Amino acid sequence: MVKKIREDYADADPALVKELADVLAIHPVLARLLVHRGIKNFEEARKFFRPDLKSLHDPFLMKDMDRAVTRLEEALLNNEKILVFGDYDVDGTTSVAMMYLFLKKLTENLSYYVPDRYKEGYGISNDSLDFASDNGFSLIIALDCGTRSVEHIAKAKEMGIDFIVCDHHNPGEIIPNAVALLNPKQADCQYPFSFLSGAGVGFKFIQAYCQKHELEEENYLEFLDLVAVSIGADMVPMVGENRVLAHFGLKKLNSNPLPGLKNIIHIAKREGELTMMDVGFGIGPRINAAGRMYSAMHVVELLISTDKELRNSLADDIHLYNEERKKTEKQTTEEALAILKNQEEKTSSIVFSENWHKGVVGIVASRLQDQYYRPTLVLTQADGKITGSARSVKGFNILEAIEECGDLLEQFGGHDHAAGISLLPKNYAAFKARLEKVIDRKITPELLIPKLKVEAHIPLNDIDDRFYRILRQFEPFGPDNETPLFVADNLVDVGECRVVGTEHLRMLLSDNDYPDKKITGVAFKMAKYCSPICEGKIISVCFTLNLNNYKGKTTMQMDIKDIEL
């Protein structure tokens, strides 16, 4: 395990904290959390605690939106064949399902396509263009990809196929010649919010069409659960419009989810009210498993199907894919860790084996990054090419580092914290050497130390049901609205400290000065602390608060991130 250090937030203005605490009648710690999130007055707090769908931005503020709607109108009027195309991850498959279900109400000349991870790789491929041409499609709506597909979209134009791109990845220097490129990250796009997921951009397209044709809001709001899943799985910032979409998407996910999503929730065995944590650790991995281990087309089929028996069968298949994914991931992680153990200490982790399963390299990269906390790239080989996934540490843009090696790559793309690449085997040694040098030159020692960003110190005795109820209103949590991390001191275990499994701890903690106040705590991979805690040592813990659902009983508990004796 990498040694973590605690780092307190910059101290919030005490006067502002007191003012918010008084006007909102809340605990000063909760007021401090609001100030950390840029909230300065009652009205801003009201908007934060009470998200409103009326605050969604006008979709026509997005560059090319009018052109996208006009081209779709032409296709529907002329009864053209439309192909909905998307990436094979959660964001891509939820986007495809959403767009297909919406367009299905407007036309029968419709199909969908998700590329094969192994045969085609990420994004628009020659195979997909051949499929579109052979089957008479004249319009492709690409979701969660396409911004960098300059050559493929140019080729499609020559084949008589138009593209509408709904994407959120960083644009390159050259913009593809699509009929419309909907991407709020374009430098000349005036849309007020640039952090939408791919499904979020697709949602805005649907919203724009509905507004122009004066269709009821329900025609696009019914897809909020799919958008929420895309937001949670793709780890886009949980602020602004994303937070509104996720808030209402979770409400739908908990009350009336799309039947296919209901199947996935069932196989994930999620109990109680679903949160973004359930999306990230329960729903998302199962959706991804199909594309990793077999075909993401199965997920789309599950999400759009009206046949209950077919959905049940597909959900069973996806469960098996996920079990296979977990076994493969575990073995690959062990092999990759063995490789790193025998390497000299570096500022990056780059590992390669031609025998690894392509579908799990991204997850394995995350596991290695957790272990060593440095920019990580895991690569494998298939069909004559080396492909891989990169993960980065907070504050280091891995995509920019990879771009400096772009001349050695066949393809690359992604975000500042995660990216994918492909290259020819003959270029691997040169690529690895250069990327290691780039990372070594750009990264600072401080970025290689994981920080526990502590929002507030709080006495255990101050944490009551009302405190937690208000804390829950800070949800949905995600990047830029992280789950608040607290520190409580002067704690002692009251006799229930025990090892769970082989390396986890479960405790019942009390403030040494207030023995009647008790909260259960769970500490993952901290079994080494069991003996001193059982001996009655006074401890300080760094933790988040959540709910534990067990056998129908729900209790508040600490998720402990660090312990100090």
**Named CATH topology of the largest domain:** inorganic pyrophosphatase (n-terminal core)
Question: What's the mean pLDDT score?
Answer: 93
For the CA atoms, what is the radius of gyration? 25 Å
Category from helices, strands and their pairing = alpha/beta
Question: Tally the helices: what do you get?
Answer: 20
The major pleated sheet works out as: 5 strands, parallel
How many distinct folded domains?
A: 3
* First-last Cα distance: 18 Å
Q: Architecture of the largest domain, according to CATH?
A: Alpha-Beta Complex
Low-confidence runs of at least 5 consecutive residues? none
Q: What is the percent of helical residues?
A: 40-55%
Shape type = globular
Strand content range: 15-25%
- Number of DSSP E strands: 19
